[in-house]
Amino acid sequence: MELLPRSPAEFGSARYWDRFFRQRGQRPFEWYGAFPELCPVLRKYVRPRDKVLVVGCGNSELSEQMYDVGLCEDIVNIDISDAVIRQMRERSASARPRMSYLLMDMLQMDFPDAHFQAVLDKGTLDALLTDEEEATLAKVDQMFAEISRVLQVGGRYLCVSLAQAHVLKKAVEYFSREGWVVRVHQVAGSGDEQQFVLPVFVYVMTKFRKIPGSAAQILEICPEEQDKPMRVESAEQLVAAVRDRQHYALLCSQISKTPCREQVSLDLCDKESGKPRYTLHVVDSPSVKPSRDNHFAIFIIPQGRETEWLFGTEEGRRQLAASAGFGRLLTVALHREQHYQGMGGIQAELSGKVMELAPPGLPARQQVPFLSVGGDIGVRAVRHCGSSPLSGDFVVEDVKGDGSCYFRRLIFLQNRNVVQSEARLLAPTPLPGQKKRRKDKKKASPTEPPGAIDKSYLCCEHHKAMVAGLCLLGGPDALPGELAVLVVGLGGGSLPLFVHDYFWQAHVTVVEIDPSMLDVATRWFGFSQGDRMQVHVSDGLDYVARLAAEAPAQYDAVMFDVDSKDLTLGMSCPPPAFVEKPFLQKVKAILKPEGLFVLNLVCRDARLKESVLAALRAVFPLLYARRIQGEVNEILLCQPGPAGRRDPAALGARARALEGALRRPGRPWDSSYALADALQAVHIL
């Protein structure tokens, strides 16, 4: 501890360094960045014929190792400590005759202009730039100016650094302003006595003649796993890119020593585009008793299934890890903008990176299995990409679900982990007279899912509950017959289509604020208008307010399934204005006395949710709730008067009766679900 300075300012003091090296003795001191890790970068930028200056050389072995491996011999080392210069002269005088050690202050060097082809700095800038006080920054400017003076045009200043944000930003801003090319390399870090878990970086600043009036900057970063540099637009972006790598290194260090109490999430980005390619979640299972073969596994989530509860929620992933029987499970989600070369290609691409996230106690050379559902990476086919001023960028994609079923999904990219609308696709049927495909014939491509929409199937559990809630309509012994239904929020159109097709006496009015969604529903989800189905492109707030004023009490059911575009709120469905008391009173006004208001509520903010429920209770005396298992959605069934009150336990039987009435010849009904199941656990609020 006596080697540490009393204040950061002592890092610039010759007296401190003399004392430091006398007390340390002959043992070399490497702040960080051992030669084997630095050598690949140095070989790129230092040529054997170069004249190299090492500033603040200390008693590091770096210059000696460069000399001994033939990287470069004409090396001049300078330092402000007389003690270390005498020590290093004695160590290298006979063995390295072309290398010299000089007592000199890098802030006032005696060399002529343009004397060197390369200047090497290993930790010196970090030691000098300990704070951002005016005096410190002035010294750094003087250091940079001297380095610039003694470097030839085309020469390189190589600075080995831990890249603290203020250090990197200062170097980048200074040299890019002077017209130099700035490139940052990441190298592996293995400091003296393994003190540093942060990665080591080498700033490579290449000197160019400054062009008057030019503001162009060339800023690049080279991660350790690739040679090709990535261009960035500003010093801030470069600092952010370095900071991401530092955070990753700290994360890897932490989880390699101790189990994760909470799930850790991170993105691995594509080398070319910089866009996310893989999303990883580290899930530890303390209940799993470790053995040699169950420490660690990688689970590849099939494409398109990352939004499912098992893969897309913390609790789901926790159950997945426990059932897999591994102490640590690393789940890997694949992104739709990326192309993948099958399971083998993904395994080859990720094998090195995922081992950085291995748990403590993993045996050496342990084979880590890659797991998936059915052993493949799934199928995802993007059918349509679009953009809307109201909904932002969106995609329509077909994905393979569990088993042989395919699904079509609408995804808003501002919230890409949420499926906005979903429909099942029908399996292709042979045309009349068409022979069945022989077994030895070429099979259809697995990447080409069928195209027709299965309108008999409601994919979303909350849609099933919303439809089942219609059993509250009608008399005690009668089911709903002719209905007038208002649906606010079209999406892909599955909900209003189902009501239209199965409630054959229903007249459905849909209000959708975004005309792009009407086009998507019509073109990609089998939606169509007709005598009993009309769409109004309008703001739902305005439409309901106008009806309340002009034509009240005309609807048997009003259904809200509309998302909020404001992702900063704790409620993603509906927008807050739709559940304010004055507007709810207008909703009540357009309902018939025995009508039903059905609301899909998605609210993670407990306090906000309670205020919504309070507003609903103030307007609707009778309120049923159905929580969707495994999801945040809660379906609220609201009636304007207590006269229609029914025992929640009896709703299952009424829903079964409604299902029996909806099933009829010529209209298929999917047997995998029942409306009575959709009303399980309904309770009165």
From TrEMBL:
SUPFAM superfamilies: S-adenosyl-L-methionine-dependent methyltransferases (SSF53335). Residues 429-450 are annotated as: Disordered. Keywords: Methyltransferase, Multifunctional enzyme, Transferase. InterPro entries: Lys/N-term_MeTrsfase_sf (IPR051419), Methyltransf_11 (IPR013216), SAM-dependent_MTases_sf (IPR029063). GO terms for cellular component: cytoplasm. CDD domains: AdoMet_MTases. GO terms for biological process: methylation. Residues 434-444 have a biased composition (Basic residues). It comes from the Eukaryota. GO terms for molecular function: methyltransferase activity. Residues 53-158 form the Methyltransferase type domain. Belongs to the methyltransferase superfamily. NCBIfam families: MFS_SpdSyn. This is eEF1A lysine and N-terminal methyltransferase. It comes from Rhadina sibilatrix. The gene is Mettl13.
